[in-house]
């Protein structure tokens, strides 16, 4: 989040703490016991086979290349199924204060279903021309899982069934072609797998009769898109922030447990236990239960912040997390194009546009004032600026919209000297009244110092009840601006000792050492 000069790069966390800090704070406990109905795509067993050789498609075994029915293919290597602007205008302060509403534009339908009376999907019927199967499956996966959740409610069992349907599609579609209704095909295959697993378990409990009644009726599959409902379920208020993040990345983002663990630098078992506990806690929560979109936005913001400025480790950013946060936020915006959703998307685009210039070839941090602005992504800036200008002219301002407006002012400046600090200070004044918080307070102090001088900022900092290494970094910079080199050097060293980020520590130490040599 922008804060000015070096601080714009050190104070990028806005209203919330980084997701990594939340995740590390979640004590690892014993995971809930849950059944595994079949292999996940990308989670094959040690022998490479897993249970993929028992996948059935539309109720029949998968045929081999010679067309002999009954031969089931072995899977030797699993991988996750992935998915896959106007010139920037000036954001004026007075536009933030304009109220108003805008009519919503409904989200797109995720795909058609089966026609009434046709019964179960036949994988060999009505194939269409080849497409990017991996991207198609990744985009359909959340909607298919949502459709099963709406029908059966059991999150873990539904997810396992969807994974097997995705695996079957990944094996067949590249060679046999994509069905005319890919969504309907996946829902039908996943439903049959779900029922098959229930029948197997119920047979051991002598309840075949009751389970038989759950056979999917030969009715057309609803065309309703349940992706947003799946977002809401993954961010259910009964879950901890750490569990919300992990479950969202797993169920909606399509990342494997290992990928999430690598992104957050925690053991894979820790992430697996969080996901398992989260599934157990929401097992009986219906998909159509009302939820809070703001909770979804907070989770996506946590993911993006950790990707934009990693809270620990050797890299300044984790691109896979920030890219995934933007992709998922685009999905939410397509289904709920309201003010704060647009504000968060704009904030992410305008902030991520500066990423190419934030580090040099060796990965060292480059402060905002020293960045080569020609390396900023102009397409992202144009898209983000257009988005935030549009929403501020029609919607009452919210916290994410105000932060996006601040980012737009930074991005529109041709140089650091051209930055409109009085407008930024005015925006922070509004943000502090609307959504007060420690990082908002700190960033406002930086803006105040840039407008009224470093001594005004130091006076405000002395009265603020803040405790964070970024506070020491701000104090160091303001002392340096005021001419107190000894005080600045001591504050830089203290900030360097307290941060867990290697690039930030190196930068702060270099500032302290340079002050000593001057």
UniProtKB/TrEMBL annotation:
Residues 30-87, 107-126 are annotated as: Disordered. InterPro entries: DUF6596, RNA_pol_sigma-70_dom, RNA_pol_sigma70_r2, RNA_pol_sigma70_r4_t2, RNA_pol_sigma_r2, RNA_pol_sigma_r3/r4-like, WH-like_DNA-bd_sf. NCBIfam families: sigma70-ECF. Residues 50-68 have a biased composition (Basic and acidic residues). Residues 232-282 form the RNA polymerase sigma factor 70 region 4 type domain. One of its GO terms (molecular function) is sigma factor activity. This is Sigma-70 family RNA polymerase sigma factor. It comes from Lentzea tibetensis. Residues 136-202 form the RNA polymerase sigma-70 region domain. Residues 294-390 form the DUF6596 domain. Belongs to the sigma-70 factor family. ECF subfamily. The keyword Aminoacyl-tRNA synthetase does not apply. Keywords: Sigma factor, Transcription, Transcription regulation. GO terms for biological process: DNA-templated transcription initiation.
